[in-house]
Every structure is written in structure tokens, then in C-alpha cells.
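Batch manifest, entry 17 of 40.
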Amino acid sequence: MSALQTCRLLIVDDSPRIHEDFLKVLGADPAAPQDTDELEAELFGLTRKEAGGGLGFEIDFALQGEEALRLVEQAEALANPYAVAFVDGRMPPGWDGLETIERLSQISPELQFVLCTAYSDHTWQEILDRVGRNDNFVILKKPFDNLEVLQLAQTLARKWILSQMVNQQLNTLDTRVGERSAELRSANEDLAREMSERLQAEAHSQQMAERFVKAFDATPMPMSILSTAELRYQEVNEGFLRLFGLRRDRVLGHTPAELGLGPDELIRRTVLAPLETHATVRNLQLRFRHHSGGERITEVSAELFDFGDEPCVLMVTQDITERLALEARLRQAHKLEAVGQLAAGIAHDFNNLVTIVMGHAELQLATAELTPDLHDSFQQINAAAHRAAGLTRQLLAFSRREPGTTEPLALKTLIDSVARLLGRLLGEHIELQVTCPTDLPLVEANPGEIEQVLINLAVNGRDAMPRGGHLRLIASTYTLEASTAPDRPEVPEGRYVCLSIIDQGCGMDEVTRKRIFEPFFTTKAPGKGTGMGLASVFGIIKQHHGWIEVDTVVGHGSTFRVYLPVSLRAINHARVVKTGAPQPLLAATVLLVEDEAELRTLAHRILTRNGFTVLEAEDGPGALALSRQRAGQIDLLLTDVVMPGGLSGVELAEQLRAEQPALRVVYTSGHNEDLLGSTVSFVEGVNFIQKPFSLGALLNTLNRALAANA
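Output type: C-alpha cells
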């Protein structure tokens, strides 16, 4: 191979910008030193100087597969073929990358192909079915590194050149063999010359075998060579040893079963048996055990070949354990997001019904004519409505994307407060042990929601220990570093506080562990739990930009670890002055806008009983018409945010305030305020009241709004 050579490259991509990127990467000075020079020198017996710099490239571009086909046909006709073609996986509206490769390979069988894809266009099996067992085909995953592209181009171009040289040598050798055979029949000296050439060929083969071993050791991909007869390792490279944490002297001469990697029969059945009929095995998923006891999931590709004089199998083993774990977490996140959206929709409709039940119960309880039995019944109805309201709040917490209000929070103070409550809540048969350092950093959190997390996890641990035991709550710091952050791409690297809740209970099997954060999933007996406790915990922690982990073993308890990001703010020690509920303002006129008829009737009844004048409308257009009839007579607008009729509560308020700037507005909704998609700042108890609401909460919010700037 000469020190400087030029190969033709073809870039097939429907984006001119991608053409420019390839030109920048591959159009460098070929005389510059390349990292592959030393390997070339070893493979071909050259000095480093003889190997020279990298290859030069003559680059052509095509926007579609049809254009690429014409260029390849012209190149073949001129006996100036392309060496390597980089083909994009998707090139609408013409052929896709696979069809382009299929057509180009029919014209130029020796052409080397690189399919640039994000693995989202075709499955592995589809690619194999269409491309077949093709040694001239490589997949480059997007987004790719410039060095990776340059190395692929250099390596494949050299492979193409080597292939041309080998073919030429084979043709030459065939001719010479024919000539030598004719000469052997006529002269003994021709026989001696032929024997000498054969010996030289054997020496060359030996040199090539030695160079193969060097290349085998140099590749980072885990590779191994096993004898087909006894399935014993004949050779392994450094990548294989790193993957399984083994030493070379411990591996060679032993079978996978003897090393504890897995049963030999599994490899015979899944690798050797298919090789007898298909010649190659590609991307076969197998599980191997690490020497430390853990399990690694791998993709194996294999081929039969002769290593020395013994039939062997060459296996390439790619570790995909982390990739599969990341894909599983991504699927679970998508699943929980879909469930959360459904939960929010259910909670909205349910809140309207609970508001009606709660409101009518409170109206009846406010009357003096009730008998003791009726009074007790309405109290039970009201209590049940409040419990239902709590369930919808859990649903909304699960579906909420951001915490309501966060602040720099000293967890030790909150943990000490919760510990006193848990002492009564857990019972005498549970011993609570709290470990919390005094110098624990602040976290950015909502105190009420973190308190709910701790109580839910503590109660969950108590229920797992019906016969009693120790429940430990441990706070510590944790740093998510760049080396481990890719395992959790949904959270940034940095400092976190870890809250560990450890019980000595019954533990969980793997099937249960994978479902514990699903809404309404519970292992408790009917009536003992709603299945929303851990789902709410998951939602709250996600809102706080943290994460939760679970370690559990059946019969040996469970450990829940909650990670919360450290706050970058300081605690604001300014005192908040709380004022009492404003006094009712008489003669106030309220425009009530609510599309739920029964809820509208209830609100009308509550407000008129408390001295308000009420005007009703079932949607935005009706409210606009009524407001213009009573121009200047309306003091406050009480409106649902989400309504039919093409006009939301926020849009209604904007139009009315344009006509009456002093109009007070109070919004109400069964949705979370952060899911309403509005630029209005909703503040509970000031300009917003969450359904379901009590009679007192409604009156206090309206009076507070009327008193503002009065």
C-alpha cells in the first residue's frame, strides 16, 4: 500500500448541510499523520515511514438514492469505482437508505457501505433481512463523532484497497499456478520453483495470522475464540477480560461453565447449532454472569473459522445491560406520564361531584332543625366527601408536573417534626430510629409535600411489619457525578440529599417491585389501601426534580431512597404576617359562571344565604351578555377556568376587565392550577379556589378578593 493514496467516497444524504459536515471531516490533508499508520505498518510489514499518512478522499455527493445510482454506474463504466458510500437512513421522498444500498451493491459488489441511522427507522431483523449477511455493511449510529466518521472512512477505504489488491493477487496467482502447472510437466526445475513459492505462501499466511492476533487484541470490542469440539477458550482479548473481570491465565483452556459465565449447553444450542446451517450468528441476546456474581446482558455475533489447525468459533460480545435498563426506565416514565394525564382528567370530573356532596352536607349541617340522627348522617357524608377529596388531591399530585410552592427547606427541622407525629402514628410495636446530621444542606422543596412523602413511606414500612420491628429513617448527602449521571438522564448531575426509609418487613418480589408506583396498585387487602400512596410519592419526587430507588428482598425488608436536589438559595427568615378572614361585605353582586348545573345551583344557594346577590351563567358567551345587561353592577366574577362554548374563564375575565377594570376575579377548577395552561398566576385563597372546596373556604376567598384594594 503506498504512503499516499486517493479513494473515491460517495455521500448520499438529502441534506446539503450534512454534505458540508462530511466534507469538513473527510476533506482533510491526507499527508497529515493518522492514528492508523502504526497498525498498517504492523499488518503489512512496513516501516512507519513507508506506511505514511492517511488516505486522501475524492468526495462526491448525492441528495437521493436515484442520483447515487447514476453516479455509481458512471464510475463503474469509467473503471474508477467508489470505495466507500455513507448513506443516510431516511431520504424522503425517494428510496430510503436500505433500498439505496441494495441497488448500489448490485452495480458495485465491492463497494463498502455505512448506513447512518438512529435505529428508529428499521428493526435489526428488517435490516438483516434486506441487507443479508453482508461483510461490506456497517451501521453508524446518529449522532456520530467526527473522529468515528474519519476512522470508519479510513478503515473501510483501506479494506476496499486491500480487497482490490487481494483480488488482483489472486488473479495473478491463478495465472501463475496455471503457468507453473504447465511448466511442471516439462521440467523438474519448474517443480522446485513451484514448491518454493508454496513455502513462501505458507510463511505469508503465518505472518498474516500473527497480524490477526495483534488486531484481535487491539480492538476494544470484547472478542473470544472457542474450540467447537470442547468449547474451551483458545484466545480472548482485553475487552473480554474487562467485561467479565477475569485474568487471561484464568480463562484460557477453560469452558464458560468452568469460569461460571453460564452453561456450556446454552452456547452449543444458541450459537454453535445455528452456525452449522447459517454460517454466521448476529446480535443474539445472551445473559452471562460476571465473576462478582452480577448478571450482564449481551449481544453476541459469531462465525466459524480455523484457528491454527482446529475448528473454532469467533465470538464478539457487546454488553447492553445499561442500555436495556435505560430503555426500561424510559418506557416506565412514558407509562406513568400517560397514567398521570388520565388521573388528572378523572380528578377534574370527580372534584365537581365531591364539591356538590360536600356543599350540600355543609348547608344541612348549618341548619338548626336537624335531628341528632340526621346531623350524624350529614357529618358522615361530609367526612366521606373530605376523604374522597383527599383521594383526588393524590391523583392531582401524581399528575402535576411541578410542585405547588417550593422554598429552601431545612430537612432536619422537618424530620424532627415528622418523627414526633410518626411516634404516635406507627404504634408501639414499631421502633422508629432517626439519623439526621445537623449540617445537612438545604433542599428546594415544598414542606407539606415532603412531609407527605415521609409519612407515606413510613406507613408503608409499618404495614410491611405487622408483628413489629425497627423502622430507620436516615438522611445523608449524595453527589451525582458525570460518570454516573448518564444512567439517569432525567436528572442533572450535582449534589442531592438522600432520605432512606428502611424496614424489616416482608419485602417484595421483582414483579411487585416493578408495579409499586402505579396508581391504584396495592398488595393490601380490600379496604386497607387505595393504591395511591406510593404513586403520590413518585409524583411528588418527580415534581421536585429528584428520583426514588427501591431495594427489596422477599423476607428481608425493603429500603426506599429518596433523592432531593440541594437548594442554591438561603432561607428567608422574614416573618409572614397572617391576617384573619375578612368580614363579609354586604350588597356585593357576584357573576357566577359554571357549566356544571348542579354545582352552579349549590354555589348560588351558598352565596345568597350569605348576603350576596348572584347572577348566573353556564358559559363564557352567556356571562358576557349578562354582564353587558348589568353594566357597572357586578362587583366580582366567580368563574370556572375550563368551560365549553369556546371561551375559557381566563379569556372571559380579560374581556370583562377591559370593560370594567375594577372587577375582582376569583377562579375555580377541578384541575391542578399548573395544568391549566394560563399565564395568570393562580394563588390559592386569593384569586383561586381548588375544587372540591368547603363553604367556609369559598366565602373567605370571595371576601378576601372583595376586600383587596377596597
